[in-house]
Structure to design on (173 residues):
């Protein structure tokens, strides 16, 4: 299937890693970009206060916007994906949105499993390059989570949302 597009709100119910994750959807990209994990301030941890907020825009439109306005960061993410999987031409937006959604779930689980580690390693400190940002401990951990769960997520979406229309996922090695 080439050039498939959908909204994150259609994807989330079929991703088992999101079972139990509090998700909010927004129609305002300014607040969260594509998606963002929100955690309580250190010392104020309360069950249910953390959430993943997701912009519910069309996946192809999201990818186009990020390609145009944050090209370096988008390409950095696509390079991570391409190190593991072959991304067929025309499917970049679907791979991108799945990765971003899994990445934010990774933040959720990092926080849930170890508040202290997450709070010590999360920083809003500015980075000079997308690669520098991706090398932050919290980001590396969430990227690793996304890549480890990507194949299963692809299969779940293919079986349930896309009714077998997606091409089989091909690893690069």
């Amino acid at each position: 299937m080439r050039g498939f597009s959908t909204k994150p709100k259609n994807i989330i119910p079929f991703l088992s890693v999101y079972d139990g994750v509090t998700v909010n959807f927004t129609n305002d990209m300014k607040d969260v970009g594509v998606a963002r994990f929100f955690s309580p301030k250190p010392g104020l941890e309360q069950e249910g206060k953390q959430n993943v907020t997701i912009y519910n825009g069309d996946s192809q439109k999201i990818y186009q916007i990020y390609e145009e306005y944050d090209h370096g960061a988008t390409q950095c993410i696509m390079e991570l994906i391409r190190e593991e999987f072959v991304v067929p031409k025309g499917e970049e937006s679907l791979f991108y949105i799945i990765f971003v959604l899994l990445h934010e779930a990774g933040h959720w689980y990092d926080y849930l499993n170890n508040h202290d580690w997450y709070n010590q390693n999360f920083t809003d400190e500015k980075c000079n390059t997308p690669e520098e940002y991706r090398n932050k401990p919290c980001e590396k951990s969430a990227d690793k989570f996304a890549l480890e769960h990507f194949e299963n997520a692809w299969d779940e979406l293919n079986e349930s949302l896309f009714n077998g229309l997606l091409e089989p996922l091909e690893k690069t090695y």
